[in-house]
Structure formats: structure tokens, C-alpha cells
Amino acid sequence: QVQLVESGGGLVQAGGSLRLSCLVSGRTFSSYAMGWFRQAPGKEREFVSAISRFGSNTDYADSVKGRFTISRDNAKNTVYLQMNRLKPEDTAVYYCAAAASGRTIIRAGNPDFWGPGTQVTVSS
After folding, report:
1. What are phi and psi of 30, to 5 degrees?
2. What is the pLDDT of residues 32-67, one digit of tens each?
3. Which one of 12, 23, 67, 79 is CB 3.0 to 4.6 Å from 16, fit for a cystine?
4. Are the C-beta atoms of 65 and 53 separated by less than 8 Å?
5. C-alpha separations of 57 from 38, 76, 81, 94, 103 in Å
6. What's the rounded Cα separation, in Å, for the pair 99 and 79?
7. How do 46-51 and 33-39 pair as beta strands?
8. pLDDT above 90: percentage of residues in the chain
9. Is 31 helix (H, G, I), strand (E, B) or coil?
């Protein structure tokens, strides 16, 4: 069983920054591609970013490209999402996800495991 726990969410003013973390336990962390999704009130959950097992490849949604950076530390079983130049439209619950089959599965919205989510609120 794999468990994912996000942290680092909170309230920030527009233009500010936050770094989300997702700690993974239960299996070999480097066996999984990792990703981030978000769900705003009244909207469907959407893909944000993904990273390959050893961090050599990354993907981003167009809405966050150039502002968000995904990274991972396999020694700490943790994936990060650095969010800069935040906008009110970035307000959402952010979810961490893991997929043994790779980034393509994450981008398709079908990871193997999900975290419970962390709230990010950006005020204008």
C-alpha cells in the first residue's frame, strides 16, 4: 500500500509563492512517476504537472508553465511543487498522485494513488 500526504498549502497574496510537498511511504518511491493535480470549487480536477521516476522529464499544464516547477528528492521520498507568481485562479485543492506506469498515465488522469489534498488560496 502506498500512502501520499501533501503539505505546504495555505493562504497567499497574488504574486506570492508557495512550495507544496508530498511525502510518499509504503513502496520504493523511485518506482513511481509523480504528479500534481488541482480542483477548484465547482470545477473538475485538472492536471498540473508530472515528473518521471528520476526527475529527468517533466510536464506542465499550459496555465502554470513558467510559474510552477516540479521536482523530487528520491532520498527523501518527496515530490515538490514550487509555485511562483500565484494568481487568484490558482486557488484550489492540490493533490499529489503516483503512477507506476509513468508520466503518461498521470497526464491521462489515471494515477495509481492519490493524496488527500492540500488547500491553496490566493487572494487578490
Report:
1. -70, 0
2. 999 999 999 999 999 999 999 999 999 999 999 999
3. 12
4. no
5. 20, 19, 14, 21, 9
6. 13
7. antiparallel
8. 92
9. helix
Task: Say what the pLDDT of residue 95 is.
Answer: 98
Q: How far is CA 2 from the centre of its chain?
A: 16
The letter for the amino acid at 73 is: D
pLDDT digits (tens, 9 = 90+) for 65-119: 999 999 999 999 999 999 999 999 999 999 999 999 999 889 888 999 999 999 9
CA dist 114 and 112 (Å) reads 7
**Alpha-carbon separation of residue 25 from 32, 64, 101, 115 (angstroms):** 12, 27, 18, 11
Q: From the CA atom positions of the chain, what is the Rg in Å?
A: 13
- What is the DSSP code string of 80-124? EEEE-S--GGG-EEEEEEEETT-HHHHHTT--SEE---EEEEEE-
